[in-house]
Amino acid sequence: MAGRLVKRCACLLREAAHLAPAGPPAGRLSLARVARKTLTSSATSPSSHFPVSSSQPLEKEQSIPPYPERQEVDELIRKATGPEELLELLGGGHGLQQDQAALVVIRLSRLLSERPEDKAWVVQDARFQQLLQLVSSQITTVWHGTLVKLLRSLYTLALPATSKELLSVEQEVRWRMRRLKFKHLAFLAESSRMYCLDLVEQFGPEELQRVLVALAAQNRRSLPLLRAISYHLVQKPFPLNKGVLLDLAYAYGKLGFHQTQVFQRLAADLLPHVPSLTPGEVARCAKSFAFLKWLSLPLFEAFAQHVLSRAQSVAVSDLCNVLLAFARLNFRPEQEEAFFSLVHEKLGSQLADLDPALQVDVLWALCVLQQARASELQAVLRPELHTQFLGDRSPRGQSTFQKLLHINATARLEHPEYAGPLLPASALDPGPPGPERKVTPLQKELQETLKGLLGGADRGRFSVATQYGWVLDAEVLLDAEGQFLPLRDFVAPHLSPPSDGQLPPPTAKRLAFLRWEFSSFASRSKDLLGRFVLARRHVLAAGFLVVDVPYYEWLELRSEWQKAAYLKDKMRKSVAEELAK
Fold this sequence. Notes:
Residues 40-70 are annotated as: Disordered. This protein is mainly α and 581 residues long.
């Protein structure tokens, strides 16, 4: 059945934009009388598995009944926490009608996916068989969206392929195929995961575009479908026009799906179209590639040149999006001076008019690219702006506040002439720890190996939250002989509040260990993303020697001895490089 549905979807997805109705799905189909006749013979008649040709005349549709108001039983279905609660609805005098029986099956399928041990007895339960018969008898009154989800649920419940109730639902889906909205067709295609490659093989570029945009709009990250689409984008030589390329880049960025060969093709095919793009399209495309952490130097150089060539007409919002994309990837154009002069010129009079959170984002991007000016730092660090983020505990508010800490650190560490204002000392205190993040394997192994080297708990700090908004994986203090010193005996100005103690010896070196996970790098690259370049720069400016521990070097170390020797060698190199300056 799934294979036949794939063939139908392949045809209908091509025509969905023209054939799918704009209004709500039909309630009772005009084909109900014919469909019921077909359903009774679908198990025995081979021809009944295929829908009537669209060229055959159809009866005039009956009027579409309004969607029924929510009833008490709908709430009971939604709140049910176990299969028994749902099955009891059949004998409770509720009189399941229209979508309700189908909704019970859908909810039952979801619960059983969480409790698979209950599936065997539920499928054999007489009430479940009664429920399936009720669904089959009411199938023509089920709405389109519910019908598609019902079919998927029945597949999940692993009913026999010859089940009359399953065949009934399949036949109804075939009858309604041309009436389904595009999102329902995409959902149906996703449900037939085994056949995704066959389905996509019949698509052209416009069909691929529509499917990807539909998935992105629903934030539906169907990996089998995305892999199949990516395979055919790489294998098929068909040309992709500008609109298709922009939508593909947007969809891949929105869904966060990485496929190197697809990105290479998109970047190469987009490059000749850049001169004809609008500033808004350039901003949108740059943003999409930044989400994907994919840096194509020729393409991004073309973006920068495009902005410069349209300096008078480019909107500040588009310029901000391009700037944020450049900062995420730590990209600086060849015409760096001209580009950032334009940025400062555009922002000079309009920075204060932007949304406060956007002001912080834009200045943070300039800090990453080492282009922030004192006047811009003053505009964002003024109390009138930053106080609104100090008590904001929402994820968005916390992200903005972290960027404010980074901006404050930039002003203190990289702009010695900066006279203020700065964030108050109370804002630099990390406060009570939030929910602990999951410890990564690299983080755990690094800490365990380093603890073995230190030989004492007082000779190192781990997960060190600094007043600059960055967290060090570890911190140690070495004397002139390369021996570890007890950190608690010495002052630590980078903590918030700074810890008291004596000044370390003049020859002592303070080392910070920074691990770089796979996600810290641009895609298929050993170049750090802009955020982590800024972190490393700030730690160096704060007086540390940095010991970098990238994931790709750590993965090559097999034994504990190798890991310990690796860290010792890294520390020696950091100290030697400092002494050689």
